[in-house]
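[Discussion] Sanity-checking designs against the backbone

I'm trying to build intuition for which residues belong where. Below is a structure token string of 340 positions. I'd appreciate it if someone posts a full sequence so I can compare it with mine line by line.
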């Protein structure tokens, strides 16, 4: 009988056999993300005290300059993964370019690279709405021992070895996959331990929640406008419910539990969409597919897109299999590059 792993640490040890080709580095990498998540969680939860503790740019009572939380989160994740010398390179939403990292022996002999959105939806912190960290892990493709190169980061989503998110919500959770399903761990803040609370998470094949910023309706492609009218029609089990938090991780997390679709399409305002392929869409797509969901750009599988730039944007349709299928049927009525 498979032993139920109750803590994240025990789960990682118990699943070491799944981390193929890994000499424990991937386990150590996920452990470093666990530590950084606890440090960032502590700071995010204090954000409500910003008037007392000082906001970004101020100096706090210790005379330290208060950082914007997304800059703070970026520093914590970068430092944690650098100090533990586990990766040969990191790319971040907060950094213009990727950073190549040497090991203590002065070489670049680690075999993984990480791409991260340190605090997605950070503007929500000011209004006490949940935010998240998103991470994506690849094996490097350039020779071990040489500095990381851009091509180590510009890999298709299908090449990811692990991906996940931390959601700093009413409770703090780590949800991740190494290609063997999706598992969610909830932090017990009293003792600083993540416990397996959501084993083997799956998207319901159908759902009745759609998540999109309808304020942009007039700027959407016709296929998206037609799909929204379908969602709102009085037919069958519709109208659906509209739920949009403005935080990808939170909308994705709710939709994975209850069933639903998240859409951030192109628009006349964002001709390529808003979300970033490498450190938002690919990791969420890996999780979605591992949880029996789907993720596309409205026409093709997100994880098949060949990346060309570190910060490139793509349209994003993600969630319950049958909901995304219907949305894609509406999109298929119009050419991919149709003018609105
Ligand atoms: P809008 C946050 O900035 C983010 O990247 C996602 O987390 C969120 O779903 C989306 O953008 C919100 O964008 O344009 O609707 O405010």
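Best answer:
Here's mine. Compare freely.
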């Amino acid at each position: 009988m498979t032993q139920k792993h109750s803590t994240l640490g025990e789960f990682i040890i118990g699943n070491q056999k799944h981390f193929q080709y890994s000499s424990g580095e991937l386990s150590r990498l996920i452990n470093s993300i666990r530590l950084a998540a606890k440090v960032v969680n502590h700071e995010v939860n204090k954000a409500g005290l910003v008037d007392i503790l000082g906001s970004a740019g101020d100096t706090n009572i210790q005379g330290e300059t208060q950082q914007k939380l997304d800059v703070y989160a970026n520093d914590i994740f970068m430092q944690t993964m650098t100090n533990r010398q586990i990766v040969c390179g990191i790319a971040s939403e907060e950094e213009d370019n990727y950073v190549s990292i040497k090991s203590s022996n002065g070489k670049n002999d680690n075999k993984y690279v990480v791409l991260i959105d340190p605090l997605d939806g950070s503007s929500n912190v000011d209004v006490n709405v949940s935010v998240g960290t998103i991470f994506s892990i690849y094996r490097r493709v350039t020779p071990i021992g040489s500095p990381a190169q851009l091509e180590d980061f510009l890999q298709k989503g299908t090449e990811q070895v692990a991906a996940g998110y931390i959601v700093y919500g009413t409770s703090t959770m780590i949800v991740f996959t190494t290609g063997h399903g999706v598992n969610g761990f909830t932090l017990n803040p009293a003792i600083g331990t993540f416990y397996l609370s959501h084993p083997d998470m799956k998207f319901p094949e159908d759902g009745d929640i759609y998540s999109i910023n309808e304020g942009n309706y007039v700027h959407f492609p016709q296929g998206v406008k037609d799909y929204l009218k379908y969602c709102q029609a009085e037919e069958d089990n519709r109208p659906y419910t509209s739920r949009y938090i403005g935080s990808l991780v939170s909308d994705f997390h709710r939709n994975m539990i209850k069933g639903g679709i998240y859409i951030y399409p192109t628009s006349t305002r964002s001709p390529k969409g808003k979300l970033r392929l490498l450190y938002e869409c690919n990791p969420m797509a890996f999780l979605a597919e591992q949880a029996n969901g789907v993720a596309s750009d409205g026409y093709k599988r997100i994880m098949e897109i060949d990346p060309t730039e570190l910060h490139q944007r793509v349209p994003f349709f993600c969630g319950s299999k049958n909901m995304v299928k219907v949305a894609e049927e509406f999109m298929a009525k119009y050419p991919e590059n149709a003018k609105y």
